[in-house]
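fold-stage: in
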Amino acid sequence: MDIQALIMLLMIGLAAGVLSGLVGVGGGIILVPALVYFLGYSQHQAQGTSLGVLTFPVTILAFLAYYRDGLTTGNPIKLGVILIMAAGFLVGGLLGSSIAVRIDQQTLKKVFAIILFYTGIKMLDWDRVIVNWVKDLFS
């Protein structure tokens, strides 16, 4: 690995880590597109690498910061909720990855992009704006 690739990987990891700690995102939103577009990874390679990064305890310090804050503010993070969701995440990750490796790269990129796009629209509440705009077109 050359120094330029090493620096690029560190920068991508730093950006994903900052966003992960800041708003709870990073793997899919930063790592996957950055690996595809800046380093030429296939969609499958990028998604697998992102999952590999998340496998190691890289988010533990960010989690602990939120956990401590929850204790001091009286809004604790419920560990039982985490364990239940983690069990579902484990099974879902196995099922999802089993499906993903059977899908061609171009289709997988489109599915990935649609999910990101839809999530952004929902989080900005633009879905209501779009529905109202379409309704107005036909009224």
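fold-stage: in (second)
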Amino acid sequence: MNESWERLYNGLVKENPTFVLMLGMCPTLAVTTSAVNGLGMGLTTAAVLALSNLLISLLRNVIPNRVRIPAFIVIIASFVTVVQLLLQAYIPTLNAALGVYIPLIVVNCIILGRAESYAYSNPPIPSLFDGVGMGLGFTIALTCIGAVREFLGTGYAFGVKVTPDSFTPIGLFVLAPGAFFVLALLTAVQNYVKAKGAKKGKDTSKIQSGCNHDCLNCGDSACSTRFYDEEEERDKG
């Protein structure tokens, strides 16, 4: 269970897919015109990510290594279709707001990346928690970006007016350039907090964006590079 909670914390903080790994930038920049849209997109992606991680992990000994990517895409696309139909039936306004970005979850690099790097080489429960952690990290990031853009661009927060009548909205923030500005601002805040922690002697080295390519001294049993190198060696043998 400790490993499961570590995977959850990893997705939320250490390797947050948006602020640390900088993955999934297309929906991050496109749909976060409001906090509700960001929350909806994040939770939709989180559901697909958690379920696909779980199923891929359960089938990891059945899926042949040579066709793993097509198999991943079929599994992910199936869950995306189910989620989209549920949104159309029960939350049509959110489905209309997110539009084409719901089907594009199929090719979201966060989902395919976690399937390739973690779920395919680890047990089901840690893989499920990995998907939940990454999904919630993505959701929090999109909601924060959407909330800031909505507040500065319209004076609203989650659809409720929170600014006085004297406040003049900055329309730029609900346009495409505003997404880049807000993402850069929030990433800079995170880097500032990390730098302050390092100055106080805190270990911030684990808040990073991936592999250091030192496979000889790497203790990460979930590393996909090591896993597939070992697979190739077995195939040759």
